[in-house]
């Protein structure tokens, strides 16, 4: 079973990943999450400009038989969403950390990022 | 997140049982789910992959969660005619019959297949329905003074389903019985891979297929492995309940826990075609009344015209007004669009009508279509 955990990312206990680039952070679901869900067939993305709080429902990822919520790892404004997933949701399965990213969030509070899990800690639960 | 549960309502939850093939399935990479009191494989590779394998070639299912009931005695035929909507006198030896068992009020207790094996009948009620159905049949026999007995033997049987266009070729390698002689809905005692069983030309996928009732259960592993070996050249795969559900839904077959939940009649479930009105059966008066009165909601097939996946329990609306409810929904692996079955008010189920399926409080447009969603020759043309 695929279970890649990347060193340069931050993680949540609910299997989201976050990558900081300047004042924005990219968010997706981990390799572990996609391999558990298998066959992702639909992604409901949020509207750009929406403001989320850490722990809010960010979007919904559906496999053939399941509906899963993705939670915001940090608070902030959504500045970009991965529109390609609307036509090719399976990209999350094939490339969870690169082409399969979900949203970009403008970081509100850097301390929230520091509080996330590092790769070593996430490996223990993935 | 991570919700890989099987979204389904369960008929009578009991202690969790495992198939005798559990350890073998675990070795084959199965992920398990609890369904109607059984821990069964939900998927091996992936639901879409398994689904397409069955449509295009052949797949092997363990469906031991389904029940087995022997019905015997000199009035067995009379009991079946009384307790199901089928006229059992019309079901000759080596034939099986899909039917429903009703309460007096016309609502469905279970849908089932019974097989006429000559010396006795074998009935296959749904998972977790063995106790209820067996008791019901014995109660009716007693009440109507019939010399017939129903015996729950679910634990004595492993049930395998081998389904797909290459199923006959695969299975033929393992038996001297000419499988071309087993007609659609035919059934008989046979020997498969040296193991005695009951074979029937039946299934729940809409593809060419066979089902095997294997006793004793310890012999099932031999049969399971031999079938996988025989089907290797066709790319056979073990298939989980996830694909079983999507395969049946593309063909608009009913799932007891979903489509019959909450006391539905066969007229509502669009199973009127199973009813033989020329004989007397339990629930007939109620059905005649319902038929005369009309105006009842019926199972309707909806194909989404927007992206999204309809699910069990989603409300169906027309211009903001509730007109029905989804009983089963999924993404169709063959069509790559959302499909659903649900009960819809009679005024709104005309073919071609556009209705809204409410998913997370947002309307998703879907069109009323004629069943099945996926035609018989799909694999040949795709």
List keywords for this structure.
heterodimer, A: 126 residues, alpha+beta, OB fold (Dihydrolipoamide Acetyltransferase, E2P), B: 382 residues, Gyrase A, domain 2, Alpha-Beta Plaits, six-stranded mixed sheet, six-stranded antiparallel beta barrel, 20 strands
Q: Number of helix segments of chain A?
A: 5
**Whole-angstrom Rg of chain B:** 20 Å
The mean pLDDT of chain A is 96
Distance between the termini of chain A: 11 Å
Q: Which overall shape of chain A is indicated by the principal axes computed on the Cα atoms? A: globular
Low-confidence stretches of chain A: none
The structure class of chain B reads alpha+beta
CATH class of the largest domain in chain B reads Alpha Beta
What is the N-to-C succession of helices and strands of chain A? EEEHEEEEEHHEHH
The largest pleated sheet of chain B is described as: 6 strands, mixed
Computed CA radius of gyration of chain A, to the nearest angstrom: 13 Å
**CATH fold label of the largest domain in chain B:** Gyrase A, domain 2
Number of strands of chain A: 9
**Share of residues in helices of chain B:** 10-25%
Query: Separation of termini of chain B?
Result: 35 Å
How would you describe this protein?
The complex is a heterodimer of chains A (126) and B (382). With 126 residues, chain A is of the alpha+beta class. Chain A is 20% helix and 35% strand. Chain A has five helices and nine strands, in the order E-E-E-H-E-E-E-E-E-H-H-E-H-H. In chain A, the strands form two sheets. A six-stranded antiparallel β-sheet of chain A has the order 1-2-3-9-8-5. The longest helix of chain A has 7 residues, at 31-37. The radius of gyration of chain A is 13 Å and the shape is globular. With 382 residues, chain B is α+β, with helices and mostly antiparallel strands. Chain B folds into three domains: 17-63 and 157-250, Probable tRNA modification gtpase trme, domain 1 (Gyrase A, domain 2, 2-Layer Sandwich); 69-153, Alpha-Beta Plaits, CATH 3.30.70.1400; 297-374, Elongation Factor Tu (Ef-tu), domain 3. Chain B contains ten helices and 20 strands. In chain B, strand 16 and strand 17 (321-331) form a beta hairpin. Residues 4-13 of chain B have low confidence and may be disordered. Classes of the chains: A alpha+beta (126), B alpha+beta (382). The A-B interface holds A 14-16, 29, 33, 36-39, 41-42, 44, 60-71, 86 and B 1-7, 42-43, 46-49, 242, 245-246, 307-309, 311, 330-331, 333, 360.
């Amino acid at each position: 079973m695929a279970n890649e955990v990347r060193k340069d990312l931050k993680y949540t206990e609910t299997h989201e990943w976050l990558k900081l680039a300047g004042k924005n952070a990219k968010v997706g679901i981990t390799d572990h999450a996609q391999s558990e869900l298998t066959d992702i067939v639909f992604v409901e993305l949020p509207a750009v400009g929406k403001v989320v709080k850490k722990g809010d429902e960010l979007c919904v990822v559906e496999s053939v038989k399941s509906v899963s919520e993705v939670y915001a790892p940090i608070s902030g404004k959504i500045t970009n969403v991965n529109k390609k997933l609307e036509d090719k949701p399976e990209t999350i399965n094939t490339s969870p950390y690169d082409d399969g990213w979900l949203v970009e969030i403008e970081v509100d509070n850097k301390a929230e990022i520091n509080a996330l899990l590092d790769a070593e800690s996430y490996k223990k639960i993935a | 997140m991570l919700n890989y549960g099987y979204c389904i309502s369960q008929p009578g939850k009991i202690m969790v049982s495992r198939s005798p093939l559990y350890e073998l399935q675990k070795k084959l990479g199965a992920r398990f789910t609890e369904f109607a009191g059984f821990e069964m494989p939900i998927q091996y590779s992936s639901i879409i992959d398994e689904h397409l394998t069955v449509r295009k070639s052949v797949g092997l299912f363990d469906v031991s969660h389904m029940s087995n009931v022997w019905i015997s005695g000199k009035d067995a035929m009379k009991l079946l005619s009384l307790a199901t909507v089928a006229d059992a006198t019309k079901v000759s030896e080596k034939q099986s019959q899909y039917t429903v068992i009703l309460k007096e009020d016309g609502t469905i207790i279970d849908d089932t297949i019974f097989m006429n094996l000559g010396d006795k009948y074998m009935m296959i009620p749904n998972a977790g329905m063995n106790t209820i159905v067996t008791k019901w049949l014995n109660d009716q026999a007693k009440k109507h003074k019939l010399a017939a007995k129903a015996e729950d033997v679910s634990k004595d049987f492993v049930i395998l389903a081998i389904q797909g266009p290459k199923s006959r070729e695969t299975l033929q390698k393992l038996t001297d019985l000419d499988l071309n002689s087993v007609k659609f809905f035919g059934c008989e005692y046979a020997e498969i891979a040296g193991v005695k069983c009951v074979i029937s030309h039946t299934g729940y996928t809409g593809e060419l297929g066979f089902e095997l009732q294997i006793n004793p259960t310890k012999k099932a592993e031999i049969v399971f492995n031999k079938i996988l070996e025989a089907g290797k050249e066709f790319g056979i795969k073990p298939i989980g309940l996830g694909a079983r559900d999507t395969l049946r839904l593309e063909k608009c077959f009913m799932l007891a826990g979903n489509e019959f939940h909450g006391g539905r009649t066969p007229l509502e479930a669009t199973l009127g075609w199973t009813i033989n009105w020329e004989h007397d059966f339990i629930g007939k008066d109620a059905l005649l009344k319902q038929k005369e009165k009309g105006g009842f909601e019926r199972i309707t097939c909806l194909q989404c015209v927007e992206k999204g996946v309809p699910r069990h329990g989603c409300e169906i609306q027309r211009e903001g007004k509730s007109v029905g409810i989804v009983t089963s929904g999924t993404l169709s692996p063959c069509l790559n669009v959302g499909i659903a079955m649900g009960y819809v008010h009679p005024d709104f189920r005309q073919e071609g009508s556009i209705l809204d399926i409410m998913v997370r409080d947002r309307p998703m447009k879907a069109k009323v279509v004629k069943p099945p969603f996926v035609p018989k020759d799909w694999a040949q043309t795709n």
